[in-house]
Here is the input.
Amino acid sequence: MSPEGKRILSGMQPTGRLHLGNLVGALENWVELQNSGYENFHMVADWHSLTINYQSSGQLNDATLEVVTDWLAAGIDPEKSVIFIQSQIKEHAELNLLLSMLITVPRLQRNPTLKDRVRDADLDENLSFGHLGYPVLQAADILIYRANLVPVGEDQLPHVEITREIARKFNSTYGEVFPVPEGKLTKFGRLPGLDNKKMSKTVGNTILMSDDAETLTKKIKGMITDPEKIYKDSLGHPDICPVFAYHNKFNESEVPEIRSGCESGVLGCVDCKQNLTGKLNDYLEPIREKRLRLELKPDSIHEIIHEGNLKAKKEVAETMSLVYEAMKFGKPSIS
Ligand code: TRP
Here is the structure.
């Protein structure tokens, strides 16, 4: 898809300070796309956070500010990208209502991402109406900007698929309003957590983008490695080692050497981790510096969000009038 005139919409829930999985799995992709000619809209999906954490609504404000600060530190440029907050643009909820008629409950129940969540969080009987409708709200987020491309991680592809179905259903029922958007996966897959499981804040196995050098060193020292590599000269299996997965991402040029060193028993885990610590520090240092500078000017971040919300509002007003026109909502006729 050529970038000219094409629009990107992506979102993240406000989870507070972001971790390396967010950086590698999403943010870096956003920055790259931002610099290749697309029109970019990036949204903090605070309403979506309520699907699981409805009791913690009071934390969303601070968490939102942390997320936006990390976006800016990682290179999202407010001159090129619109940064806005979902709950500030009320029309997302309005479109959510209209779109919710265009998809069946069984279809939403078949959503594999939901099934995983229900299993992981043991929701079963406690699944809320709002949580079942998560992808419909996401479809509204995307379609209300008439976006063409949605950069997401793999777990979100089913939601993009549902968005496509809803867009087609709307267009065929009422008339063409929405482009059918495409998902775009990140180049680099998932980065494992310190314990080689999925990186997640709730599990506590993350490295944060904003961790200082000392914290980073400690965390890498404590990382799990190949359990069979007990001694320095044991023969290792890099492909199952999370430290190696990090080298793959942050130290690409030395990967062949590290692989053969690990496999042949020449390279031990202590040295391998030390090497990674240095590379990762180099990688994160400019991001940390930028974050520290931003933290000194919280007003400027609020201003960026305010400007972004205004731009978003302008777009959604246009879409909503197209939607109501297509649906032939108008002034009630008096006979
Ligand atoms: N569901 C996404 C996630 O948890 C966040 C999100 C909300 C989103 N609305 C979106 C992502 C629209 C892309 C487009 O990661």
Observations:
- The chain has two domains: 7-191+299-327, 213-292.
